[in-house]
Amino acid sequence: MILRLPKKRATDWVALAQKSLTWHKTTLARLEFPRAAINIEFMPTATTPSRDAALETRVFWERFKTEIIAVLIIVLFAIVGFAGYRFYSDQRAAAASALLASAKSAEAYQQVIANYPNTPAGADSYLLLAEAQRNERKFAEATGTLQVFINKNPNHELVSTAKMAMAANLESMGKNDEALSIYQQIVSIYPNSFNAPLALLSQIYLLKSKNRIEEARRICETILTRYRESFWAGEAAQELRLLKPNASSQPPPAQTIPPLLTAPSSTPAATTLPPNSSKPR
């Protein structure tokens, strides 16, 4: 037996089924999307497997042990070599100092320079050799020795002293202009050295010999201004007094005060009496 529905009711059922199907699709889609988002957002990450530190160290050593051993050997040789060099340098410097202490002549100083050229004693030997040559009046040789010392030891603390000795040698040879130039170099290059005021004072003597009195006076004032605490300040003050013109040689200034305003003399003048007046009793 076949059940037959009315045509209008069948049409209503079809429309209701279509609406129900559409509702289920949209509703399920809205519910499934947040669920998928939640699943993606809170997805657990995979944890890294823990490693044993001792095992990693063992692997690193087995992989790079050749390079590590080579570096350690190089460092060890460097330390041993540096220690050996320091020991050799100290022994050599001590031997040079002992030889310099026993040296008393120019030949002995030359021997120290030849045997120990790069030692402090060897550098000092140049200065002592130049002094010995100057005492023998070998001014040119002494100047050359000092120049070699300066060239080999440009940062030595006694370079300014060597330049002062060179200037003194040039003065002894009559080369005053060259000596004056060296003194000026010392003041400009080493203004804070102990030789700077002495170099200024040496310029004063040379300028006086050239009759450049005004320049010499300015240098005296410079010494008194910059180096007032040094020993050479007193010498500069004395030279400045000698360079000033003599006041006694100038004529006395004319009297500008009227005679009536001058101070009376200490002895009163004798009073004259009229001829017929009697002396007071």
Topology:
Blueprint: H1 7-41, H2 53-102, H3 106-115, H4 120-135, H5 139-152, H6 159-172, H7 176-189, H8 196-209, H9 213-226, H10 232-243
Helix pairs in contact: 2-3, 2-4, 3-4, 4-5, 5-6, 6-7, 7-8, 8-9, 8-10, 9-10
Which CATH architecture of the domain at 62-243? Alpha Horseshoe
Helix segment tally: 10
Structural class by SSE content: mainly alpha
Oligomer: single chain
Reading off the top of the CATH hierarchy, the class of the domain at 62-243 is best stated as: Mainly Alpha
Question: How many angstroms does the end-to-end distance come to?
Answer: 198 Å
| CA-based shape | elongated
Query: What are the secondary-structure elements, in order, as H or E?
Result: HHHHHHHHHH
Q: Briefly note the CATH topology name of the domain at 62-243.
A: Serine Threonine Protein Phosphatase 5, Tetratricopeptide repeat
Low-confidence stretches: 247-252, 254-263, 266-275, 277-281
Q: Which whole number gives the mean pLDDT? A: 78
Short description:
This protein is an all-alpha fold and 281 residues long. It is built from ten helices and no strands. The model is unreliable at 247-252, 254-263, 266-275 and 277-281 (pLDDT under 50).
